[in-house]
Design a protein that fits this description.
The structure holds 4 protein chains of 4 kinds. Chain C is α/β, with parallel strands linked by helices. Chain C is built from 4 helices and 4 strands. In chain C, strand 3, helix 3 and strand 4 form a beta-alpha-beta unit. The chains are: A alpha+beta, B alpha/beta, C alpha/beta, D alpha/beta.
Chain lengths: ~350, ~325, ~140, ~280
């Protein structure tokens, strides 16, 4: 790992260079909320935020993705689509970066998903440490911090006049080397400063989830009436899953006109009863209880069983935006406490 | 100001009845200023019930969310009633559902609360950000008393209430079995100021504004699912054959969805604001709903959710309905 | 560019009056613009606003709904119901910045071939002036 | 296509056979890949499934109902139910569909060598069993006694009638057909499949029972098999779910942490007992 320094005054220069050669996506303020959009000049960015409402996973697992094109009907022909786009995501938070690493588990394996994996491969994640976590942030519950560089190619941390720059792999090195005149080597004092910034951010986080042994505990309480208690207030709006950075479920549908068409993949949510409805009318998850439980289990039991990692990064989006205050910190903590 | 003890007594009394399955009301949420729907199955459960200006949810959605699992042989359907705690605006949703025969009157017990306005959670969070514990909001005449960490601040209601409360004409529930406290008469008037203001814009400016808003939409359908009046068994956007609205997210499908959602609530929307509150992308859905509400008031002298005996707006007509637009 | 814009108009005509009116216009050899593509419906009350929105999505520049004169509806009240619906829809379209003149409604009886031709002429000219519908047309960008 | 599991291969419909008429008709489609090399190399084991798509309508997950011992084509049997299956039923020979697969796990045809096999099917549930039955019959000497128990609502609803007739003629296969409601001219068993099972009374010794059909039938078949002394690792079934991707990504067909499309559709009763989840 390389430790470098980038003067804050040089950030625009750095960004301009990046934009010259690459598609750069960065946090932009639009209608009062932050979203990750392609920028054409550094001044469009807004770095004074905690997290975007719409997760940046959408840049890799697009909400609408064309799988391939075809001529519809009974005399069909198929045409592949190009997925070679290269891009840089600048200013992604460590939690969101971790979510992409978590998603990767689902998309590799026996059947490799070319759309996700190719985009993942072609994307450089330039992160920005989070210095002001909000009330529902709980990334520290998963042994991570708001300034962890583990899942990023490059991580910038604001340490006053400079950014402390951690370059974790070759992907990142390629970028910093091409602009080596902008970077200075970091001193021990800078590392200390970063640690301080990190500690300060960690201290702000005041909500914690007890995740110790949660997967095993969930094994024992599947039929517990506790789930009905939790799920009864759910209105099934699906916001939690749409905005969750680790939710990967999707629907595949054909769209066509008379002469052309495409098979399209779109995000879907397990909170909708239609999600599991069979054509025969039978629904294995007919009630809210089934659906809410499935969401929690998918994150805290199935995912750990299949991939050895909890599918939650503690970003708190689902808590922020749930219209009826179903609070995953509270749900999981309480699930750990109920008697089987 | 609602007396919580009086509310709890009423809930206790209701849930003690044999013919009541559960009562849905409000309790304190898990963090900050949040409140959350809560369910009482036995009299003790009533002790956690509260009502405060933080109780923004429209609970009349819950009777409509009841799942009706297929009955086994010889099994009797559960015919018990559901108790619902409602504010003035929420009660209109129930009235509207009754009018459409979506629900039987004898399936609900309505516990009415005369409401003097709730807070807009987004405005409150902006004014007092980042508080997790020890917060409270109380009603204090024309002010809200906001307590944070022991310090109480009085804030003019107009600064914190959502737009719907500013022009609320029905603070007291229209229909109720039990009323907590005294009836309140409204001296407010819906003047559709925002709508009138927006109408003056040119078509181009209007579309520019809405294009931006619809572009944000992620089509999670939270607006639909949270709405007490969106209770169709199969929503038109979930229909596959024919598929009217495609699932891909782009301005065309987003506009179609948002227009159709608004239209399907024409003469039915009672203005509770649940859709806008649930929207994760902050699309001002109520502006569309209010526009339609204004038009049907002007064109058909009709108001949704005030009279359960009336026929639904679009299922009836008057021979002299406006028709100047017809060739 | 340079080519003259020819509007694409979808007409939902009721089986009993407007469609018969269009027929009469045809058999009487009354000329009217060929821009109208007719879809026969049993009653103007059958026209769900979803049809209108969908037509505009799929490339129609305008929509014309034809029904019986008030009081003449074969199903007694279908056209009255349609009138209410379209009144609300037009207001909604206008509010979102889509010219309400793209959605038109007319009463044409089976005997009014001339009126039918005139209505189509008028609607076509109006929509020609408005130009192509671009607000939320499907782009099919795959 | 090779490196993109979402993109199907094109296949021609060679032949369409009507299996069952009525409200919920069943047709069997004989499909041949356009790519000859692919057709020759396309190998699967009974129990596996394929994703069949009609472009412009969508995709559906079907059990392959032909046996890999018959080369040069694959067959799927489709009941007309939803959007895609209805559109498939409107097709004609010569039309093109997309096929990707084979997906999922399979019946343990190697491990079951030398054992007595009891097939218990109902309705469209016969499709995956048909593949296995044909496979076993084509390798008849590898297996012990074969019992086929199959039931449908009426005699008209029996699928693969011709094949059952062929099987009935064989001396080394016992076929026990049944219908739910009494009918004139029907000399075989009248009643539900689980009851027919009790009447046939197969011995659990050195046996494997494979059942597939409507969920309610499977439930009672398993109960009756246990009554007959079958242990939970002697009972196998196949499950179905709503599916979109077929490769364990889209998330909707999970039972617990297993995906029916990837880790199923064949499960032993022992497995099913030990995983929890809605199905």
């Amino acid at each position: 790992m390389d430790s470098l320094l980038l003067s804050k005054n040089d950030l625009p220069k750095f960004m301009t260079e990046l934009i010259k050669k690459n598609k750069v996506f960065a946090p932009v303020e639009s209608n009062g909320t932050i979203i990750y959009e392609q920028i054409t000049k550094p001044s469009e960015m807004n770095l004074d935020f905690c997290k975007s409402e719409y997760p940046p996973k959408a840049l890799i697992l697009n909400q609408t993705e064309t799988l391939f094109k075809f001529t519809p009907g009974t005399k069909a022909k198929i045409e592949s689509v190009d997925i070679d786009e290269k891009k840089i995501i600048f200013g992604i938070r460590p939690c969101d970066a971790k979510s992409i690493a978590i998603l990767e588990h689902a998309f590799k394996g026996d059947y490799k998903d070319p759309y996700f994996l190719k985009k993942r491969e072609n994307t450089v994640l330039v992160g920005l440490s989070c210095t002001k976590p909000e009330i529902n942030c709980f990334c520290t519950s998963f042994d991570d911090t708001p300034a962890s560089s583990k899942y990023l190619d490059i991580l910038l941390t604001d340490i006053g006049d400079n950014y402390y720059v951690e370059v974790t792999n070759d992907k990142g090195k390629l970028l910093t080397k091409s602009m080596s005149q902008l970077f200075k080597p970091a001193k021990d004092s800078d590392i200390k400063k970063k640690k301080e910034v990190e500690k300060k951010a960690v201290d702000i986080i005041s909500r914690h989830q007890k995740t110790n042994g949660i997967a095993d505990k969930l094994d024992k309480i599947f039929e517990h009436p506790f789930w009905k208690d939790i799920a009864f207030k759910c209105v099934g709006c699906g916001t939690c899953t749409y905005l969750c950075p680790t939710c990967h479920c999707f629907d595949i549908q054909d769209e066509s006109t008379l002469t052309k068409g495409a098979r399209v993949r779109v995000w879907d949510t397990c909170m909708n009863p239609e999600y599991t409805l069979h054509a025969s009318g039978y629904n294995p998850r007919p009630a809210r209880t089934n659906r809410v439980r499935n969401r929690i289990y998918h994150k805290y039991n199935y995912y750990p069983k299949n991939f050895d990692v909890i599918a939650c990064v503690g970003c708190g989006r689902c808590i922020d935006l749930c219209p009826v205050n179903i609070d995953i910190i509270d749900v999981v903590t309480r699930a750990g406490e109920v008697k089987p | 100001m609602v007396d919580n003890n009086q509310l709890r007594e009423a809930v206790k009394k209701t849930i003690s009845r044999d013919d009541v399955k559960y009562v849905v009301g409000y309790e304190k949420g898990t963090y900050g200023f949040q409140t959350t729907p809560c369910f009482a199955y036995k009299p003790e459960d009533a002790d956690k019930f509260i009502f405060s200006p933080l109780c923004v949810h429209n609970l009349s959605v819950f009777p409509m969310l009841e799942e009706k699992p297929p009955l086994r042989k010889g099994e009797e359907p559960d015919k018990r009633k559901i108790g619902v705690v409602v504010k003035g605006c929420d009660s209109r949703a129930i009235v509207q559902i009754l009018q459409e025969k979506g629900l039987d009157r004898d399936k609900v017990v309505i516990i009415g609360i005369p409401c003097t306005g709730v807070v807009d959670p987004k405005k409150l969070e902006k004014m007092f950000p980042g508080h997790i514990k020890n917060v409270e909001v109380k009603d204090d005449d024309d002010k809200f008393a906001v307590t944070v960490d022991g310090k109480t601040q009085k804030i003019q209601k107009s600064e914190l209430i959502p737009d719907k409360c500013k022009t609320c004409e029905y603070p007291t529930p229209i229909l109720y079995d039990i009323l907590i406290g005294k009836e309140i008469k409204s001296n407010k008037n819906e003047d559709y100021k925002k709508v009138n203001e927006f109408e003056k814009k040119s078509l181009k400016d209007k579309w520019e504004y809405w294009e931006k808003q619809f572009d944000k939409c992620i089509r999670c359908y939270a607006c639909r699912n949270a709405c007490p009046l969106c209770y169709c068994k199969e929503c038109m956007v979930d229909q596959l054959n024919p598929q009217w609205v495609r699932r891909s997210v782009n301005i065309s499908e987003n506009t179609a969805w948002n227009l159709l959602r608004a239209f399907h609530l024409a003469g039915r929307c009672i203005g509770c604001g649940q859709c806008e509150r649930s929207c994760p992308m902050d699309i001002p859905l109520m502006e569309l709903n209010k526009k339609i509400e204004k038009e049907i008031r002007e064109m058909f002298e009709y108001e949704a959710g005030v009279n359960a005996e009336e026929k639904p707006l679009l299922a009836m007509f008057k021979p002299d309905d406006p028709e100047e637009f017809i060739l | 560019m340079g080519e003259k814009f020819e509007p694409n108009i979808i007409g939902f005509l009721c089986n009993w009056c407007s469609y018969a009116g269009a027929d009469l216009a045809g058999t009487s050899r009354i000329q009217y613009p060929p821009n109208l593509k007719v879809i026969r419906v049993m009653c103007s009350g059958r026209v769900n606003p979803i049809f209108v929105i969908n037509a505009l999505q799929q490339g129609a520049d305008g929509v014309l709904i034809g029904g019986c004169h008030p009081g003449d509806c074969h199903y007694e009240r279908g056209n009255y119901l349609a009138r209410r619906r379209m009144a609300v829809l037009k207001k909604l379209l206008e509010y979102t910045g889509i010219d309400p003149n793209r959605v038109r409604m007319t009463w044409v009886s089976a005997a009014e071939g001339v009126k039918f031709a005139e209505v189509v002429k008028e609607v076509t000219e109006d929509i020609r002036k408005l130009g192509p519908m671009q607000h939320f047309k499907r782009e099919n960008k795959w | 296509m090779k490196d993109n599991p979402y993109q199907p291969w094109l296949a021609n419909i060679e032949e369409i056979r009507d299996e069952v008429g009525g409200q919920r008709p069943i047709k069997t489609f004989k499909l041949k890949f356009q790519d000859k090399e692919l057709q020759n190399n396309f190998s699967y084991i009974p129990g596996q499934c394929a994703m069949v798509s009609l472009f412009g309508e969508g995709e559906c997950f079907f059990a392959i109902s032909s046996s890999p011992t018959k080369k040069g084509f694959i067959e799927v049997s489709v009941m007309k139910l939803g959007k895609v299956t209805s559109a498939l039923h409107d097709l004609e020979p010569g039309d093109i569909v997309g096929v990707r697969g084979p997906y999922g796990n399979n019946f343990d045809v190697k491990g079951w060598k030398g054992k007595n096999l009891i097939f218990i099917g109902g309705g469209i549930g016969q499709a995956p069993l048909r593949s296995l039955i044909n496979y076993v019959v084509d390798n008849r000497k590898d297996y012990g006694k074969l019992d086929i128990i199959y039931g449908a609502r009426t005699s008209k609803d029996i699928s693969y009638k011709d094949e059952f007739a062929e099987l009935e003629k064989r001396k080394d296969v016992d076929v026990h057909l049944s219908i739910d409601v009494k009918e004139e001219g029907w000399k075989k068993f009248v009643g539900f499949v689980p009851d027919n099972l009790l009447k046939v009374k197969p011995s659990p010794k050195n046996s494997i029972a494979i059942t597939c059909g409507p969920p309610i039938m499977i439930k009672f078949v398993i109960q009756n098999l246990e009554k007959l002394g079958f242990t939970e690792d002697q009972i196998f079934t196949t499950l179905e779910m709503r599916m979109k991707c077929g490769i364990g990504k889209c998330g909707r067909c999970n039972i617990g942490n297993l995906y029916v499309c990837k880790d199923g559709p064949v499960f032993s009763y022992k497995q099913l007992k030990n995983i929890y989840g809605e199905r």
